[in-house]
Write a structure and sequence with these properties.
About 70% of the residues lie in helices and about 5% in strands. With about 525 residues, the chain is mainly α. The protein has one domain. A hairpin with a 6-residue loop joins strand 1 and strand 2. Helix 4 runs parallel beside helix 14 and helix 18 runs antiparallel to helix 22. The radius of gyration is 25 Å and the shape is globular.
C-alpha cells in the first residue's frame, strides 16, 4: 500500500498556473510568519542632491491580515494590466503571427537557415539573444518564438530552440557589445557611491565596454556548446518535420503540370520576398531617422529634455525605450503583410485576420498564466522580502574583513543569491552600491569593475527565478510546443531544463571575473579592475 501511494505522489504534476497560485498563497503565509518574527534589515542609500547617507529600515509587510487581503483584492486588476510582459507579449505575438501566417518566416528559414550548420545557428541565436539586452527584455519576446520556428524547420525539437533563446537572454543579461540601457540605470548609483570616497570620481559610459564585448563572445561560445552537447541530445529531433523539409528540397517533378506549379510557387515566394525586403527597409529607415537628433522632423523617439544622447534614447522617459516593442511589432506586421501580398497568400483583408487567428488560438492559456504570474510577483514585491534579503547580503559583504580574490568570489555568489529574490539589477544596485562600493574601493576594487560584477552576478541566476518578470514567457512557450498536453511543463520542470546551462555559465562567469581581476586587463578605455 505504501509503495502505491508513493508512486501516485511521484506522478502528481501541477499546471504552471496552479504552481503560481500556490506560490502566491505561500508568499502570503510567509509574510505573516516573518512579520511576526520581526524580520527586517537596515541599509544605506545616497541622496541624489547632496550625497548624504540615508538609513533605510525595511520590514516585512504582513499580507496575512485584513489589510493585506484588501490590498491583494483591490490591486489584482491593476497588477495584471501594469505587468510589462502582458502588453509586450500581446504586441509581439500579433507581429510574429503575421510573419508566420504570411509564410515569410518559413521562406526565410528554408532559403537561408536550411543551408547553415546547426551549431552556427545556435551560436547566432545565443549571440543575438545576449546582445538584445541592450534594450531591456525585448529578446524574450522576439527570439524565443523565432528560435522555436527555426529549430522546428531544421528538424530539431523547438523546445531546444526555446531554451537556447531564453538562456541567451537571461544568462547574458546586461552583457552586450554596445552601450545601452544598463549603463543609464546603473552608473548614477555607481558614481554616487564612489564619490563617498572620492568626491571627483567619474564613471564613464564606456567603462565596461571591453569586458562586455569579450564576455558576450565567450558566453555565446560556451552557451552553444551547452545547447548542442547537453540540451539538444536531451530533447531529440523532430524527424517528421525534417523529412518534410528534405522532401521539398529534392522534389521529383513527374510531369509538366507539377513542374509549372512549383515554378509558380517559387516565383510568388521570390516576389513576396522582394516586397518584404523593400517594406522592411523603408520601416527601418524611418525608425533610424526617428532617433537621429537635429534633422528636419527627426528625433521623434528621443527625450530631448535630456542632456546626453544615451539618456535621450535609453532614459526613463525615452519614447524609443517605451515604444521599441511596438516598433518591432509594426516592423514584423508590415514585413509579413508585404510578403503575403507579394506572394498572393493574402488576397483580402480577411485572409490576414483568419491566418493570424489560427496562430493566436493557443495564446488564451498564456494570458491566464500571465495573470497569475503577475499576482505572485506583485504580492512578493509588496512583502519586501526580496529587498530585505538584498539588504542583508549587502551588509554581509560590507562586513567581510579580507580582500582580494576570496572577497570577489564571495561577493559574486552572494549577489547571485540575492538576485533570486530581487531580479531587477537597478533595484539591487541602488541598495548594494552605497554599502559595498566604498569599502571595496578601499580594498583596491574599482567601482566600474564592481558594477560589472553586479551585472555578471545578476545574470548567473536570472534564468532560474520565477520572480523574474519574463520567466513566465519562457514557461508559456514551453507549453505551446509541449506535445504531451496531459503533462504540462511546470515552473520547476522549466528550471530543471535550464539548470545545466545555469551551472556551467555561472562557472564561466566566475572564472572570467577572477581571471580578469588577477591579470589586470582593462575593462574599458583607461579603466581597470583595480583603483
Amino acid at each position: 500500500m505504501n509503495r502505491k501511494k508513493k508512486l501516485k505522489l511521484k506522478k502528481l504534476k501541477f499546471h504552471p498556473v496552479t504552481i503560481y497560485i500556490l506560490l502566491t498563497f505561500l508568499t502570503i503565509i510567509l509574510s505573516g510568519v516573518l512579520s511576526s518574527l520581526n524580520f527586517q534589515t537596515t541599509y544605506s542609500t545616497i541622496s541624489s542632491t547632496d550625497l548624504s547617507i540615508i538609513q533605510n529600515t525595511v520590514e516585512v509587510e504582513n499580507l496575512l491580515n485584513f489589510d493585506g487581503v484588501k490590498y491583494i483584492i483591490s490591486n489584482a486588476a491593476r497588477n495584471f494590466i501594469s505587468f510589462a510582459p502582458l502588453s509586450m507579449f500581446l504586441m509581439m505575438a500579433i507581429g510574429i503571427s503575421v510573419l508566420i501566417s504570411s509564410g515569410f518566416l518559413d521562406f526565410i528559414t528554408k532559403k537561408f537557415f536550411s543551408k547553415i550548420d546547426n551549431k552556427k545557428i545556435t551560436f547566432f541565436i545565443i549571440f543575438i539573444a545576449t546582445i538584445s539586452t541592450i534594450i531591456n527584455d525585448i529578446g524574450y519576446l522576439i527570439l524565443i518564438p523565432i528560435a522555436a520556428s527555426i529549430y522546428e524547420a531544421k528538424g530539431r525539437n523547438p523546445i531546444a530552440g526555446i531554451i537556447a533563446a531564453f538562456c541567451g537572454v537571461a544568462f547574458g543579461a546586461g552583457t552586450t557589445i554596445f552601450v545601452g540601457s544598463s549603463e543609464v540605470s546603473l552608473i548614477p548609483y555607481t558614481t554616487s557611491a564612489a564619490r563617498l570616497v572620492d568626491s571627483t570620481f567619474h564613471v564613464s559610459l564606456l567603462s565596461n565596454l571591453y569586458i562586455m564585448i569579450v564576455s558576450t563572445i565567450i558566453l555565446s561560445i560556451v552557451g552553444t556548446i551547452i545547447v548542442e552537447k547537453i540540451i539538444v541530445p536531451k530533447f531529440g529531433k523532430v524527424k517528421e518535420k525534417k523529412e518534410l523539409v528534405n522532401d521539398d528540397a529534392i522534389e521529383v517533378i513527374g510531369d509538366l503540370e507539377s513542374e509549372q506549379d512549383k515554378l509558380n510557387r517559387e516565383y510568388k515566394e521570390k516576389r513576396g520576398f522582394k516586397f518584404s525586403v523593400i517594406a522592411a527597409f523603408i520601416m527601418i529607415v524611418i525608425f533610424i531617422y526617428s532617433v537621429i537628433p537635429d534633422l528636419p522632423l527627426s528625433g521623434m523617439l528621443l527625450d530631448m529634455e535630456e542632456d546626453t544622447y544615451l539618456r535621450q534614447i535609453f532614459g526613463d522617459n525615452s519614447y524609443f525605450q517605451d515604444g521599441f516593442t511596438y516598433m518591432m511589432s509594426l516592423l514584423f506586421i508590415v514585413t509579413g503583410l508585404a510578403y503575403g501580398i507579394g506572394s498572393k497568400k493574402f488576397k483580402k483583408d480577411r485572409d490576414v485576420f483568419n491566418a493570424c487567428h489560427d496562430n493566436l488560438k493557443h495564446f488564451g492559456g498564456i494570458i491566464i498564466l500571465i495573470f497569475f504570474a503577475s499576482q505572485f510577483i506583485y504580492v512578493f514585491r509588496r512583502t519586501n522580502i526580496g529587498t530585505i534579503i538584498t539588504g542583508i547580503v549587502a551588509n554581509v559583504i560590507d562586513s567581510i574583513s579580507f580582500g582580494g580574490v576570496p572577497l570577489l568570489i564571495i561577493s559574486i555568489l552572494l549577489i547571485a543569491i540575492a538576485n533570486l529574490f530581487l531580479p531587477t539589477a537597478s533595484s539591487k544596485w541602488e541598495i548594494m552600491a552605497p554599502v559595498i562600493v566604498p569599502p571595496l574601493m578601499q580594498s583596491n576594487f574599482s567601482p566600474q569593475f564592481l558594477q560589472f560584477v553586479l551585472r555578471a552576478s545578476d545574470s548567473m541566476t536570472k534564468g532560474i527565478t520565477p520572480l523574474a518578470t519574463f520567466f513566465v514567457i519562457f514557461v508559456a512557450y514551453l507549453n505551446i510546443y509541449n506535445k504531451d498536453q496531459d503533462n504540462p511543463i511546470g515552473i520547476f520542470a522549466a528550471i530543471k531544463m535550464v539548470m545545466p546551462y545555469c551551472l556551467i555559465i555561472s562557472l564561466t562567469w566566475l572564472l572570467l571575473l577572477i581571471g580578469w581581476y588577477i591579470i589586470g586587463l582593462p575593462i574599458g578605455p583607461g579603466v581597470y579592475p583595480t583603483v
